[in-house]
Amino acid sequence: LAPDDDARAPGVAPAVRQRADALVRALLAPARELPELHLRDVDVRRGDEPLLTLAAFDLAHDRDAVTLASTGTLRGESDVPFDLLLRWQHDDRLTARAEFRLGEATPPSPATLLVRVDGRVAQDHRTRELRIADGTVVRVGELAAGVVGRVSAKGPAFELAIAADHLTADGFRRSLPAALLGPLTGLELSGSFDWRAGFALDLAAPDSVRFHADVIPHGLALDAEHSRPSLSVLLGPFIAQIHLPHDRIVPRELSDANPHFRTLDRISPFLRDGVLTNEDGGFWRHRGFNTEAIALAVAADLRAGSYKRGAGTITMQLARNLWLGHRRTLARKAQEVALAWLLEHQGGLAKERLLEIYLNIIEWGPEVHGADEAARYYFDEDAAQLSLPEALFLTIVVPSPVKWRWRFTPDGALRPFARQQMHFIANKMSARGWLAPERVPPADSLHVTLRGPARALFAARDTIAAADSTIFDLP
User: Fold this and answer.
1) Is 273 helix (H, G, I), strand (E, B) or coil?
2) Residues 75-104: what's their mean pLDDT?
3) In this structure, what are the phi and psi dihedrals at residue 260, rounded to the nearest 5 degrees?
4) Who contacts 371 (Cβ-Cβ below 8 Å, separation ≥6)?
5) What is the torsional sign of CA 414, 416, 417, 421?
6) What is the Cα–Cα distance from 236 to 238, expressed in whole angstroms?
7) How far apart are CA 173 and CA 178, in angstroms?
8) Which of 46, 149, 156, 419 is the most buried (most CB within 10 A)?
9) Dihedral of the alpha carbons of 40, 46, 50, 51, in degrees to the nearest 10
10) CA-to-CA distance for 16 and 32, rounded, in angstroms?
């Protein structure tokens, strides 16, 4: 959280609006009147970065429909060959089939992601709208979902609703390549569930964005003994394999054998409530993911024109840190949401235990993990004994622990933006009833004194900076 994150703007960022307008123009282009187009061996790049290779692209017409056929490769960390065939008839019926080849088959999971669409899509050039009609079905392997949607040039505005019934773990394994399922492949679930999701956005009023998602279980149960990863192992002492950026993994033992392990009642309430305020204010209310926070984050990011505000819950961060790592892909995000839901609904874990694990494994600096390691590293203090300013400082370090030093001036004082962030979080804590109003310190009164190993590292940086200034006559 930052003081100006929620400042209201009259609309979205110009770059966002330009992209949205371009997308709407493409969707409303009179496809049945476009000229036939045949391309071969086309590379699509962003600067020097390859995005797409089209071996063939054919847009053709017949008496009843317009047909698009294409084959090529999506370029990225791993190249993904694909084939696409789409037919849009004059009566608005749309049928499509796409295959994406994702590595080798690992039975029962296939090597190919198969997506099929059968429904009706209509362009209304009078109202400048595109509509996906009720009854349209999207199939991914043997998984099926009904889809209804609308895109309007006015706004522009976008609406989408998805409904899928009788989904099972075996159905996912038979339908999705193992590369997309990740650690979900080893989970043993009995029963089934239905899924409902909806999204509505009018760029003329970004704060009106709506998002909801519901899982409706039918006898859904997790076989804790045979599932991998084992969620039940989190109930007692265990060794956490913490996934860090750049595919690094570090272990931490969460038991009394680790002198830095702290149960929740041995962590400063100031730190506990500060982290909750900054990272996941709805933690005690939600059950894995927070749809209200997602809607607010979308609105804030649209106004800013960049990724300014996330909506990941502490439970989602826990899944990422324990099993998934930090690569930002759509598949990883889906895995994160699924694991967070299972942790909250099927893992048998109380909210307090989830928070306790989180506060004992998150990164707070170079090779510093957990509240007590952080308290010792910065202040040579036990995690239970932190003062309010010290807890507020550790709270603002969590989102970017590698940048902690830049929150100080060369003489060791907190920079104004850091004090303002700490004051803002204290105010939020007070608004939630977690801090008495009279305990909220003014921003200009906030200061901390580094007393732990961090002080030596900070002093070393100051020494190097002073030497550089002398050698090169820097101002």
Assistant:
1) helix
2) 95
3) -100, -5
4) 262, 267, 268, 271, 359, 360, 364, 383, 394
5) positive
6) 6
7) 7
8) 419
9) -70
10) 28
C-alpha 295/C-alpha 287 separation (Å) is 16
Give every strand in the sheet of 37-46, ordered side by side: 37-46, 49-61, 65-74, 80-89, 93-101, 112-124, 129-140, 143-152, 157-167, 189-202, 210-222
pTM comes to 0.89
Contacts of the segment 439-446: beta carbons below 8 A, 24+ positions apart: 439/388, 441/388, 441/389, 443/416, 443/419, 444/419, 446/389, 446/392, 446/414, 446/419, 446/422
**Residue 291 is encoded by which pair of tokens?**
């749809």
Angle at CA of residue 331, ends 158 and 399, nearest 5°: 85
Residues contacting 473, CB < 8 A, separation 6+: none
Tokens representing 150?
A: 């609308």
Contacts 24+ apart (CB under 8 A), 74-83: 74/100, 75/50, 75/51, 78/102, 78/103
Identify the pLDDT of residue 418: 96
Identity of residue 296: L
**304 vs 156, 300, 461, CA distance in Å?**
17, 6, 34
Q: Are 338 and 320 in contact (CB under 8 A)?
A: no
Average pLDDT value over all residues in the chain: 91
Helix (H, G, I), strand (E, B) or coil at 405: helix
Distance CA 55, CA 342 (A): 42
Q: Which of 66-70, 106-110, 245-249, 457-461 has the highest mean pLDDT?
A: 66-70
CA distance 45 to 298: 28
Q: Which amino acid is at 60?
A: A
**Cα 99 off chain centre by:** 26
pLDDT band at 307 (very low <50, low <70, confident <90, very high): confident
- Cα separation, 82 vs 71, in Å, equals 6
